Amino acid sequence: MRIAGLKKEHFKLWNDLVASSEGSGFMQSWEWSEFKEAEGAKVERLGIFEGGKLIAGALVYRVETSLGVSPLAMPHGPVLPWSDPAKAEACFVLLKERLGALAAKTGSPLARLEPFITGLPPFLGPALRAPLDLVPTPTLLVPLAGSEEELLAAMTQKGRYNVRLAERKGVEVISSPGGDLTGEFHELFQLTCARHNFSGEPVGFFSRLLEALGPAGLARVYLATYQGMPAAASVAVFFGNRATYLYGGTSPFLKRTMAAYAMHWRVMRDARGRGCAFYDMYGVAPEDQPHHPYAKFSAFKARFGGSLARLAGAHDIYFYPQLAKTLVSRLEAKGAVR
Amino acid sequence: MNRHRLEVREVPGGRAFYIDGSLQFDSRDEAVYHEALALPPLALAAARKPAPLRALVLGGGDGLALKRLLAGGVASAELADYDPGVLELARTEFAPFNGGALDDPRAKVLARDARLHLKAPGGAFDLALADFTFPEDLAGCSLFTRAFFSAVRARLAPGGVFAMNAVSPDRFPAAFWSLYRTLASARLYPRPLRISIPSFTAHGYGDWGMFLASPRPIKDAELKALRFGRGNAWLTPATFREALTLRLSGAERGLPLSCVIKKPGDLLCLVNLQEPGGAGGGVMADFANSAAARELLAGIPGSERLVWPQLASEWEWRLMETLRLLDWDLFLSELEKNAAAMPGKALEEIKLLREKLPGLLKGAVPDTDRAWQVFALLMTLLVFVNMAYPDNAYAKGYYSHGSAGSDTSLDITFFTPDTRSPFHHPVFQGSQVLFTLASGDRARPAEVLRYRAPESAAGPAGIKEERLYFALTDDSFISKSGELYLKLGHTPYLLSAGTGRFTLLDKRSTEPLFDFLPEPGALQAALGAIEQHVKAADKALEAYKKWLAWAGPAAVFSSEIRGHANEAANIADIKAALLKASLSLQQGAAAAPLPEIPAGWERLAPGLYLADDYEIVLADKDGAFFSYPYLGLRGLTHPALSPAEDLDGFITEVLTWKNSLLAPNNPRKAIFETLLASKAGQ
What we know:
- The complex is a heterodimer.
- By secondary structure, chain A is α+β, with helices and mostly antiparallel strands.
- Chain A is 36% helix and 24% strand.
- In chain A, strand 4 (72-75), helix 3 (85-106) and strand 5 (110-114) form a beta-alpha-beta unit.
- The longest helix of chain A is centred in the first third of the chain and has 22 residues, at 85-106.
- Chain A starts with a strand and ends in a 7-residue tail after the last helix.
- By secondary structure, chain B is α+β, with helices and mostly antiparallel strands.
- Chain B has 4 domains: 29-273, Rossmann fold (3-Layer(aba) Sandwich), CATH 3.40.50; 303-398, no CATH class; 426-591, no CATH class; 601-681, no CATH class.
- In chain B, strands 6-5-4-7-8-10-9 form a 7-stranded mixed sheet, with helices on both faces.
- The N and C termini of chain B lie far apart (86 Å).
- At the A-B interface, strand 6, helix 6 and helix 10 of A face helix 9, helix 14, helix 15, helix 17 and helix 18 of B.
């Protein structure tokens, strides 16, 4: 078993591995890493080979700042053979060693693991729950197996009714893998951001996202219109066995058309057509927290059925030498002039 | 007489000289200090006056500055140092470093107090250097007063140059800027210099400050043209240029506290002012207070946009959990390993941290404790590590929200451009609010207004000075004392909203022009704007309360956090002014009935009307109408005011302003233009 940097020629091998891994997701895809790279992140692509076969690895993201203290982030990673704990452990030992070396080189005081699994196996060692998650947890996973009737039957009654109501009202849903709907999407997205008081990404971000992921079929913009007026829009990402509802927005004026239901219903069917087993609603409030900021969206998302996935969340492995160095050596940086 | 403890310590590759435990020079880098002190004034003096040059060195008994002057070709040099012990060392121990400068035939060395030496008869000097130890007692401080600098000036030739060793602009900004002001007040026009001396920094003294001064102001062009010759260890045109550049942050911190040093005690206070704890001054705290630490903490990516994360309870809880669960044994031993390379007390402080750790992890917050400072720094660092990966900040769902949210919800409020209140702006982060914000976040210097206030319950008539320091809207302002001022477009006129009157003020003169009727509409609009701003201020204050409760202790080493504390204090001040204004305006609004304005009158400004397209009418504070004979007395319908030049000017400005607001094809433009043209033709 050996660990090595992945090169462009490993593109397909790596994506296949990530796509088939239950514990990973689109943020470990090669395309996503290229997108983030273009956004300014540094990416280390590490692969673990056994007898020449790629069996594990991680795309490690970091951001170079004047601090030099960005975590080594592995959203949806690392990619390990989780079902074979002994082998996964052996892989992790190799990976951890390499991460340690990378930390020594970059000064990162911690590595952040964020696999798409519900509990961390003990072999990961003393990883501490990170203060921030990148991949939202808990999240709602809607299973996509079955006929359209079965999928509708799995929704709540209200959800089913609204999907059909939107169809009766003549809501139309179109989608595009390119940038042509980005403008409409962004207008609705901004409206929604303003309504809920969150800070949204600028339109350029979405153009670049679609440019990077669209051609490979990894992302699409969906737009639901009512009599030609934009009513709801979203960006969905398709990778491996999951489709993900990454961003969305609705028009406050066309709520009654239930356009958002028609739109998600379209995404679900498209995802099923692409062989996805689940539609990830990307974060909901835990049921016992009615005042959670996600609660309102959660009620909407829950109407599509599915079940709650309580992911383990982001965990940090600290590199104490780097943490100590960051604390001390930065302070004496002035003294170390010449 | 030798009251001071002199020490020469062997250091790897050289020697270091201490007086009373304070480093004077380290032979390995003394060149930086002495070249910076001696060579620029020498070059400047040489540029201003042809040889021969006469030089004076006050203090500086080690002979290292003298060596540079002699090597630079001065014709003669006098050195007066009151400590014979130092002079003795200079002739023996330091001879290898100063090249025997004290015994040079051109040098005259006296063991004498500098003040006495200045009073002694003798000719004028072309350049003088003051190289004294750090002013730690009254005797030491007496060499940095205005009287002393005046004495120096008296001994300088007309274009003579004075250079002095000052204090660190980092560590003692107030003292540094006070020295600047003191030199200036002694008419020795100063130029500050800032240099980094490795051995000083390693002792936690911070960057070092010096002044180059002269009775004849030193021009930029002169400094630019200085030539220093080859073979210097440190000084080149480039290093000199850098030394001339002082960071503004230091100025901001020190300037408000600075004063002219008249008595030695003034300086002693200033020096002690910014050094709480006095004697102990630990190395860790020194480093934490260093420019490097500020740089470290200022480098948060995107900080201009995100400004600050407000830590939600869960965020904070998880961070505290992280700190609790850290492998402290491993971490502390790594810290010790790293700190071993640091001088002095770092190891001790890490030991202290180790001792106090259990308490700190339980949440005990001893406010000025050094262990806590280190701990707070670590916490802050961890926040930054998390912030350094911007996806975390932008990841979906991390948004601000108002009141909804439970104790365990994961919500972080960022001050993004979309969500922040109008208060989160750097203009509020100084120690005083000197700018106002116009629409679009443009900062403008806050105008200062001087005018004769009417006699009132608050006090007799007199010249009043008001800073229009908070912009309610683009044309209405609240002053620090809570009064409302309305701007009239781009005219130089303002209305001051007093009780029962809108007083017309001209920015160019202190005499009020007219008391107008207070306009209820304008008062209501201002009240509405005030209400909005008070709400925003409350929100901002609430957010800061939370943030500062958490990050406050780190203010010691982060100018950003100090900025936030300033901002919170300023917002509280602004809020108080707003509430005060609101109170008085409410009384005014209740008391002011508006007389009926006839149809066909156009409102030009509060209380100023254009009646039937030709007559200028003013409503005075009692609601009575007066006609103003703008174009003569003919056809006036109300009691006429007597014509006055200042009111003429005011009305012309208002008409011009109103006219400029009209679209070119607006038929009313003709009316304004006719009025203005007729006036001009008179």
